[in-house]
Amino acid sequence: MGCAIGRRQFITQGTLLAAAAALAACGVAGSDFGTAPKFSSPTVLKLSDYPSLASVGGVAVLTLVNSPFAIVRTSSATFVTLSRICPHQGSVVTPVSGGFTCPNHGAQFNASGQWVGGQPTSGLHSYTTVYDATAGTLTVS
Length: 141
Ligand code: FES
Fold this sequence. Notes:
4-stranded antiparallel beta sheet, alpha+beta, binds FE2/S2 (inorganic) cluster, 14% helix
């Protein structure tokens, strides 16, 4: 009884496992696994709590649903909310001039979260963001 495999077969299987692990580590063949969080209910934010969003192009970094986010003011009346979880392998991207960069493998994203260079991956996950100018609030969902 038991599993009896020869030395040659063992080495072959070991090599395949190592190759699969190496491919996963390099983000090859659809192995992207940075997972953006989901909201169970909309989150309402007071715009005045984020002074950096007072002007167009401003970026605020914050924590929502226990996860790192960024909000970008894209015009006087529009905002984009992005997960800062890198879609490649889950590192936290940081704001840079004109967008975001990932410190892990160098993926680069524009201010709207679209991938623009470095490590190939998908864009940052974005969320519906509704601006109520009268109330001075952003509702993110
Ligand atoms: S985790 Fe690899 S580029 Fe971000």
